[in-house]
Amino acid sequence: GVEVDTVLAAFTASVTPATTFVPAKPTDPLPASDTDTWRAVSQAWKSNREVFRDPQSGDFSLTAAPGARKIRRPRVGVYKAYTPSMDEGWTRWILENVGFAFTSVYAKDIQAGDLNSRFDAIVFPEMSANNLQSGHAPGTMPDEYVGGLGEKGTGELKNFASKGGTVVFLNDSSEWAIHHLGLTSIKNVLNGVNNREFYCPGSLLNVTRLDTHPLLLGMPKDFTVWFESGPAFEITPGGRDVAVASYSDGKVLASGWLLGEKYLQKKAAVVDSPMGSGHVILFGIRPQYRAQSYLTMKLLFNAMLYFE
Which single residue of 9, 116, 132, 238 has CA 20 to 30 Å from 145? Predict the structure, then answer.
């Protein structure tokens, strides 16, 4: 989103060093395009202040405004497996840094059920489908640290989404959702493609977005995403699934390394799959990668408010 001009000729400029820095004072309404807005909103919730949001622009306000809706603080769970995930730690760090209230949830917490009484959104960080489903094998760890979501956890997550909850899967964890939550109309087109045909170990890629979608509030029309060995989605036409953001049908690579660009062209990077009265959100990207992706963090934050 930064405009850049290339200057080919030498030039001089009259400049003086900056000695002080005065941050801009928060405005009201708080623009959805500014990631720091979420810090102000989180602080308002923490102080028991009312928060309102314009459903069209996504801008927040701390006073009632025409057309704005009152938004309550989301009850967020972040899945914490006994098979450690670096991405889980980064996700917690980001939420703590922005001021989001959240609860770490383990497989046993999900298997206990009654999730809708405790959470509005549950986030699954980047990890393999096998780790999510099975975790440590019996006998390799003390009994309390073995196993994963299993059939019981899968059923409870389906029930949670069907009753209005939002379940968010980041990068490779999306593969678990496709297979275990029965998302039969969504296919990972990179599944089974070897790295001699497709390879993208960490690059910025160009995506285009839908005209309107709740996950895109505050996002520019076109933007780049951080892709790192993740999935890319193909959706069967005619269903309820929505490609929120898709890769360009032309030049996909914005910066970095990409082999096999054709596999990504016109494929979905972010998918919203309705389930009952709730939603399953699949990110084939790293929207909060190591706390660096400030632009696309808003996609994740918007997902956690999708229940509204």
Answer: 116
pLDDT tier, 2 (very low <50, low <70, confident <90, very high otherwise): confident
**Three-class secondary structure assignment of the chain:** CCCCCCCCCCCCCCCCCCCCCCCCCCCCCECCCCCCHHHHHHHHHHCCCCCEECCCCCCEECCCCCCCEECCCCCEEEECCCCCCHHHHHHHHHHHHHCCCEEEECHHHHHCCCHHHCCCEEEECCCCHHHHHHCECCCCCCHHHCECCHHHHHHHHHHHHHCCCEEEEECCHHHHHHHHCCCCCEEECCCCCCCCCCECCCEEEEEEECCCCHHHCCCCCEEEEEECCCCCEEECCCCCCEEEEEECCCCCEEECCCECHHHCCCCEEEEEEEECCEEEEEECCCCCHHHCCHHHHHHHHHHHCCCC
Q: Which residue would you say has higher pLDDT here, 21 or 15?
A: 15
Tokens of 111: 């298997």
Q: Is the pLDDT of residue 272 over 80?
A: yes
92: β partners: none
pLDDT tens readout for residues 85-144: 999 999 999 999 999 999 999 999 999 999 999 999 999 999 999 999 999 999 999 999
